[in-house]
Amino acid sequence: MKYNNIILFTLIVLSISVGCQSNENSITNEEAKLVLDKVETMHIDVDGKLAYEILDSSYIHYSPLFPSPASGIDAYAYNIKSNLRSFPDFSLKIDSFFVKGDIIYSYWTRKGTNTGSLGRMPTTGKKINFSGFTFYRVKDGKILEEHTYWNVLELYKQLGFQILPPVFEEK
To answer: Does 40 map to a domain?
Structure first.
């Protein structure tokens, strides 16, 4: 019985001490706001230079557009330049965010006009407006990892593309 009490007491003390420890990797709302302000600006930076200031050298980006994660600052800077060639007035607006530990969770809206080709897709001249959700893992003011989620189909529909059902041949 005495042994059980000692174990119980030890577990309670450990639980309290672990729960009361501050997470040294935590970021504040103010720090998150600074990072997100730079993210908004980075997405209209034609030269892609701001990406090197805000992204960590080990940066990884997960997106519904990429079959596998995009790694490195150069890949992301290229993506920004490519987007701005297709949508010169492309903008990113962080609508809201919250912070938990070293993660910034953000809800955003993108707008722009397609005046340049988008990969192999022709220019449409159409305006787009879509929203999504991103979370950023941050350390020392730099983004290590980004996970972006949005409805790609919504973008294609706004550009005028149609989804056609498959045609099945009868046997």
So the answer is: yes
